[in-house]
Design brief:
The complex is a heterodimer of chains A (113) and B (115). Chain A is built from no helices and 11 strands. In chain A, strands 2, 4, 5, 9, 10 and 11 form a 6-stranded mixed beta sheet that branches. Chain A has a 5-stranded antiparallel beta sheet with strand order 1-3-8-7-6, with no helix packed on it. The chains are: A mainly beta (113), B mainly beta (115). At the A-B interface, strand 5 and strand 10 of A face strand 4, strand 5 and strand 9 of B.
């Protein structure tokens, strides 16, 4: 089955700096790669996703890139703000079928003011 | 729609007792997932259903864990007997795969403490 590896497990940046979180996956059939943000004590919520027919997607300060050949994808947050502090999870699945979401173990991002 | 609804929000039970967690998915969603979250292991997929049928239960840790989905609007995750190492936050999520909008929506979770 699918296996998703996520790095780093913790990341600390200064406000205004950029943050990058990287994930790799094992199943070449995976074609849907969402990123979730989980604030302390709350549920994970989708912030951005990318499908295998797209190499990059951007939404304001966040962007995701996908390299299907290498089977890795990354989350980029620019101009970080204290409210970006949270745990971020990447995931992979086979959409269009009975695809399940397999998550990485998460990255705890701390943005210092 | 009120989103995915889980109950109870918090559960404290003694070791050896039976625990039942409940989930109501978003109306119209035909995939339902149960996840367990711990500091050590992150978000683990326990089981998922498609059209009320269990598709993959390979993540269920032991025979003490069982899940059912008797209809499209209700699912349960049962632990019998419970053990302290089962303490975690259990999330239920639902989605509608195969469409353009494939986001998985999570419930607020059930924080289980087994003492």
């Amino acid at each position: 089955g699918e296996n998703v590896e996520q790095h780093p497990s913790t990341l600390s940046v200064q406000e205004g700096d950029s943050a990058v979180i990287k994930c790799t996956y094992s199943d070449s059939a995976s074609n849907y790669f969402p990123w979730y943000k989980q604030e302390l004590g709350k549920r994970p919520q989708l912030i951005i996703d990318i499908r295998s027919n797209v190499g990059e997607k951007k939404d304001q300060r966040i962007a995701v890139t996908l390299n299907k050949t290498a089977k890795h994808f990354s989350l980029h947050i620019t101009e970080t703000q204290p409210e970006d502090s949270a745990v971020y999870f990447c995931a992979a699945s086979i959409r269009g079928s009975q695809g399940n979401l397999i998550f990485g173990k998460g990255t705890k991002l701390s943005v210092k003011p | 729609d009120a989103g995915v609804i889980q109950s109870p929000r918090h559960e404290v039970t003694e070791m050896g007792q039976e625990v039942t967690l409940r989930c109501k998915p978003i109306s119209g969603h035909n995939s339902l997932f149960w996840y367990r979250q711990t500091m050590m292991r992150g978000l683990e997929l326990l089981i998922y259903f498609n059209n009320n049928v269990p598709i993959d239960d390979s993540g269920m840790p032991e025979d003490r864990f069982s899940a059912k989905m008797p209809n499209a609007s209700f699912s349960t995750l049962k632990i019998q007997p419970s053990e302290p190492r089962d303490s975690a936050v259990y999330f239920c999520a639902s989605s509608l795969p195969g469409t353009l909008n494939t986001e998985a929506f999570f419930g607020q979770g059930t924080r289980l403490t087994v003492v």
